[in-house]
């Protein structure tokens, strides 16, 4: 028999015998043991059922009871994130604070003091292994902080671009490059922003959508990934939220050329490749190029 979660179990007379009878009438039936606990695990116990009739005659039958520990077992989940660490222990083992036997999803919690860390957690850029797969900050996208100035809206006296398109509500909420000749999205496309982002004024006001390309370090004519992004008046190239570094879902730790393109302007490409590590936005400053966008590596 199996102990319950409290480490207890019991048997009844009918567990041993379906019944007893006597022609002269039964006097009494006793069972030598009915309750079992952790101390009975491992060593079989003989239980006797002794029936006595009204004349004092007795008859006996016996059963061998083997007690096994409770299943499911207890597991240590000290941070209560539903993932345990270590191996299971039974109710009769030294389960103490932090042990649970219900509601668990699985084991392998590599930090049982941090409920944000467990198998299946989202790996984020924080210098630790959030999902317990022995890799730190894997799956990080390539991130970049590019700066670029467009000649058309550039006001040299202010060293800023004007944001007339935004003021006139001419910036679409969805990027305009999908479907345009000479702009082929790879991985990107369909990016959208919000009216709230386009309501920002000042040096961080949005000037327009631009088109970013990461290109093969061994063959810069080969585009590996694209993203539509926004450019602010001071030249910062930002995500569709208007502030964040631009992310590409492409392998980190590799070298790429970066090209910045616009539907009404010449594009530019980085003069050399940059290595893009996980979780770090690589700076790419194109503002020192001639403002018409030409460079030795014009694309
Ligand atoms: Ca845990
Ligand atoms: Ca944890
Ligand atoms: Ca990881
Ligand atoms: Ca991480």
Task: Walk me through the topology.
Blueprint: E1 8-10, H1 13-16, E2 26-31, E3 35-37, E4 45-53, E5 58-65, E6 74-76, E7 85-89, E8 99-100, E9 142-147, E10 154-155, E11 160-161, H2 164-167, E12 206-216, E13 219-232, E14 237-238, E15 246-248, E16 254-262, E17 265-269, E18 274-276, E19 281-285
Parallel strand pairs: 9-19
Antiparallel strand pairs: 1-3, 2-4, 4-5, 6-7, 6-8, 9-15, 10-11, 12-13, 12-16, 13-14, 16-17, 16-18
The structure holds calcium ion (CA) (4 copies).
One calcium ion binds near residues 81 and 109.
What are the defining features of this structure?
299 residues, mainly beta, 3 domains, six-stranded antiparallel sheet, three-stranded antiparallel sheet, 2 helices, rod-shaped, disordered C terminus, binds calcium ion
Architecture overview:
The chain is mostly beta strands and 299 residues long. The protein folds into 3 domains: 8-65, no CATH class; 73-139, no CATH class; 142-285, no CATH class. Helix content is 3%, strand content 34%. It has helices at 13-16, 164-167; strands at 8-10, 26-31, 35-37, 45-53, 58-65, 74-76, 85-89, 99-100, 142-147, 154-155, 160-161, 206-216, 219-232, 237-238, 246-248, 254-262, 265-269, 274-276, 281-285. Strands 12, 13, 14, 16, 17 and 18 form a 6-stranded antiparallel sheet that branches. The longest helix has 4 residues, at 13-16. The relative contact order is 0.11. The model is unreliable at 290-299 (pLDDT under 50). One calcium ion is lined by residues 123-124, 126, 128, 130, 136-137.
């Amino acid at each position: 028999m199996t102990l319950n979660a409290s480490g207890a179990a019991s048997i009844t007379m009918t567990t041993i015998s379906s019944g007893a009878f006597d022609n002269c009438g039964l006097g009494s039936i006793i069972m030598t043991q009915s309750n079992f606990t952790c101390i009975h695990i491992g060593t079989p116990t003989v239980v006797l059922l002794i029936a006595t009739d009204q004349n004092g005659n007795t008859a006996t039958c016996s059963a061998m009871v083997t007690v096994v520990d409770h299943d499911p077992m207890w597991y240590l989940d000290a941070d209560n994130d539903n993932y345990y660490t270590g191996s299971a222990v039974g109710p009769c083992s030294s389960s103490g604070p932090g042990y649970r036997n219900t509601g668990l999803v699985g084991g392998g919690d590599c930090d049982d003091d941090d409920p944000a860390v467990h198998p299946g957690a989202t790996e984020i850029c924080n210098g630790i292994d959030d999902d317990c797969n022995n890799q730190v900050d894997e799956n990080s996208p390539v991130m970049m902080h590019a700066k670029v100035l467009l000649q058309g809206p550039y006001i040299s006296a202010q060293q800023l671009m004007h944001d007339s398109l935004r003021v006139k509500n001419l910036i679409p909420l969805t990027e305009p490059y999908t479907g345009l000749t000479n702009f082929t999205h790879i991985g990107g496309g369909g990016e959208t922003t919000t009216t709230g982002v386009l309501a920002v004024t000042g040096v961080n006001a949005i000037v327009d959508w631009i088109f970013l390309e990461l290109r093969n370090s061994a063959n810069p004519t080969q585009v590996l990934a694209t993203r539509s992004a926004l450019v602010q008046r001071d030249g910062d190239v930002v995500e569709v939220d208007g502030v964040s570094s631009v992310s590409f879902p492409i392998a980190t730790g590799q070298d790429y050329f970066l090209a910045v393109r616009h539907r009404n302007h010449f594009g530019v490409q980085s003069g050399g490749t940059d290595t893009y590590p996980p979780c770090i936005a690589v700076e790419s400053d194109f503002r020192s190029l001639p403002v018409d966008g030409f460079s030795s590596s014009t694309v």
